[in-house]
Amino acid sequence: MTMSKRKNSEMWEYLESVGVLENGTDMEIKSAKKAYRKIYLLKYKRKQRENKPEYTVNFSDRKGELSRVQTSAKRHKMTVTGFIRSAVLAYIAKRYIVPDTLQVAQLEQYLSDCLNEVQNISRLKEKYTWDRENKYTAIEKRIEKLEAEIHSLFRNPSEVINDCKNKIIQESSFQETS
Fold first, then answer.
1. Contact at 8 Å (CB) between 165 and 94?
2. pTM (2 decimals)?
3. Which of 117, 104, 118, 113 is nearest to 152 (CA)?
C-alpha cells in the first residue's frame, strides 16, 4: 500500500491523531486499530438506525396470530416482513392489499381482449343490420364501462371502513324486511 492511500484513509488519520503510527509498538498499533474499528462500527450502526429504523413485532402462537400472518403472506406471495409492511401501509392509506398483481393484470388483459373482439365485430357492417350494429355498440360500451370499473376497483379499491359500513347497512335492511 502506498503512503498516499494510507494518508487518505480514516484509519490512518486516526492512528496519526493518536500518535501511535510514528512511534508506537506493534501491539499499540493493533490495539489502536481495534479501538478505531469499534468506534467506526458504533458510528456506522448509529447512521444505519437513523436511515433505516427497525421495529420488533411479537405475535402469539397460542392465538394463532403468527400462523395467520404467515398464511396470508404466502397467499400474497410475499415474505412475512414484506407482507406486514404492505399491510400497515395499506391500512394507513385505507386500501386493500391485492393478493396477486399478476392475476389482476391477466384479468385486465382478458377484459381488454374481449373489448377488442367486440370492436372488431362491430366494425364488420352487414347489409340491413343497423339493429345489430346498435346491439354491438351497446355491448362495446358496456364492456368499456366494465373494464373501467374493474380497473378502478383493482387499482384504487374502496376503503375498508366503507365496505364494513355497507355490509352492516345491508344486513340491517335485510333483517328489517324479514
1. no
2. 0.41
3. 104
At 117-168, the pLDDT tens digits run 777 766 665 655 666 677 777 778 878 877 777 777 666 655 656 666 776 7
pLDDT by residue (tens digit) across 76-128?
A: 888 998 888 888 888 887 777 666 666 677 777 877 877 877 777 666 656 55
Q: What is the 3-state secondary structure (H, E, C) of the chain?
A: CCHHHHHHCHHHHHHHHHCHHHHCCHHHHHHHHHHHHHHHHHHHHHHHHHHCCCCCCCCCCCCCHHHHHHHHHHHCCCCHHHHHHHHHHHHHCCCCCCCCHHHHHHHHHHHHHHHHHHHHHHHCCCCCCHHHHHHHHHHHHHHHHHHHHHHHHHHCCCCHHHHHHHHHHHHHHHHHHC
Under 8 Å between Cβ of 132 and 76: no
The residue type of 150 is I
Domain residue spans in the chain?
3-51, 99-156
